[in-house]
Structure formats: structure tokens, C-alpha cells
Amino acid sequence: MIRLEGVAKTYEDGTVAVTGLDLDVPANTLVTLVGPSGCGKSTILKMVNRLIEPTAGRIYLDGTDVTDADPVQLRRGIGYVIQQVGLFPHQDIATNVATVPSLLGWDKKKARARALELLDLVGLDPAQFAKRYPHQLSGGQRQRVGVARALAADPPVLLMDEPFGAVDPIVRARLQDEFLRLQRELGKTVLMVTHDIDEAVKMGDRVAVLAGGGRLAQYDAPAAVLGA
Ligand code: ADP
Ligand code: ADP
To answer: What count of Cα atoms within 13 Å lies in the side-chain half-sphere of residue 36?
Structure first.
């Protein structure tokens, strides 16, 4: 589903972030990408959704070379969740989530109904949360809104960059479990970045271990990664 072939990225200032990376993320699997800070994880995700361009190599999404795709069209098929989910502070939660369907041209009523459905899906009771503002949410609740928003256009692919990194360990464990259930239920293809090996092993159907410079040190089932 997601395929990287010989992908490299050297930033304009000469920093080598990724070198010669080959990686296959099969459909409906959750692959975790784990490695120390600065090893190129975020850079890899940003290349897949074309926030930045690789300096070499090819990236395919469902067989299509992403460099040939219209970026707007491409991102409709990709949900993106980052650690610091940026919510519009002056819009309530339902409106925040309805932004994407609205951008897609859905009518207001339909977009709002979809937003309420999504809030429910990520465990935020719409009756309680729809009219709250971002500052009235906990960190964990904000991350849930981030997941809801990423799911709004029903994309087949989710890219997640340390999605549960900013919340305390107990909340994190709950969000992880709930997300795993959701992923299986919805059948999404997920590439998720983390620096936490425990999280990588717990969540991944397969675990890609990165060394410095975005080089793939290992790509295997979680049990095999732990045994190494
Ligand atoms: P990770 O997500 O694994 O922490 P990143 O992909 O953010 O790593 O960064 C990989 C390397 O690229 C790091 O050395 C980082 O400092 C560098 N880097 C990231 N973004 C830029 C940029 N815009 N310009 C120059 N160097 C960058
Ligand atoms: P933030 O709101 O965290 O600052 P942006 O302003 O970049 O992030 O994004 C605004 C909205 O667009 C968010 O819903 C985000 O999930 C979505 N988005 C941004 N970039 C992408 C992308 N490359 N693919 C899919 N969705 C994206």
C-alpha cells in the first residue's frame, strides 16, 4: 500500500536525514517506525504526504507515485496525526472536526453529522464535547480530536507522528488500546512514528527499526524485534 524505494532526503543545509530507505507497508497493517530522536522518522512521514520532497528515490501509494499525484488529491487519502494537534482555538470541537468534510464540499448539516459520529468513534461523547473549545480539553482528549479529524475524509491511510507522545502514561496506554481497536475495526493502513520501543512493539503488526540517517536496521514482527 505504501512503498518506499531508495528514498533519501538531504535538507538544504546539508543535513542528511534519510539515506536509501526501502520500506513496504502492506494494506490494513499498522507499521511502527522506531528509532532515536533525529534519525529521520518525521522526515519520512512528511515525504509520504509530500509536505517535503525526497532528494532521491520513489514513494508509491497504492501503486501511484506520489510525486505524480496532485498534493491536494493525495492528502484526501491520507490522515495525518501529529503530537501537537493544532486545533482552531475559536471553534468548538465539532466545528474543528467538520473542517475537513467542509473543505471537501460537503453541506453543513452532513459535515456536522459526520463530525459528531467521529467524536463518538474516538470516545468523546458528542453530547458532552461537541460544543467545548480546545482549551477546555485535556491533552488526551485533544489527541482524540486529532484522530477524529484525521479520519474525517475516511482516508485509507493514516500517518501518525508520535500521536500519543504528549500525554501521561496511563492515558497513553488507553489511547493506544483504543486506537488499535479502531484500526482493526476500520481496516486502515497505518505508518506510525515513535521513539518508544515499547510502544512500537505493542502497536506494530510489523516494526521498522531505524538507525541514524534514516537507515533501516531491522524490519520484522514485534516478537522478532524484541528477541534481537
Ligand atoms: P526524527 O523524527 O527521527 O526525530 P527528523 O526527521 O525530525 O527526525 O530529523 C532528521 C534529521 O534532519 C535531524 O538531524 C534533524 O535535525 C534534521 N532536520 C529536520 N528538519 C530539517 C530541516 N527543515 N532543515 C534541516 N535539517 C532538518
Ligand atoms: P496543525 O493544525 O497541526 O498545525 P496543519 O495546519 O498542517 O496542522 O493541518 C491542518 C489540518 O490539515 C489538520 O487537520 C491536519 O491533520 C490536516 N493535514 C495537514 N497536512 C496534512 C497532510 N499532509 N495530509 C493530510 N492531512 C493533513
So the answer is: 5
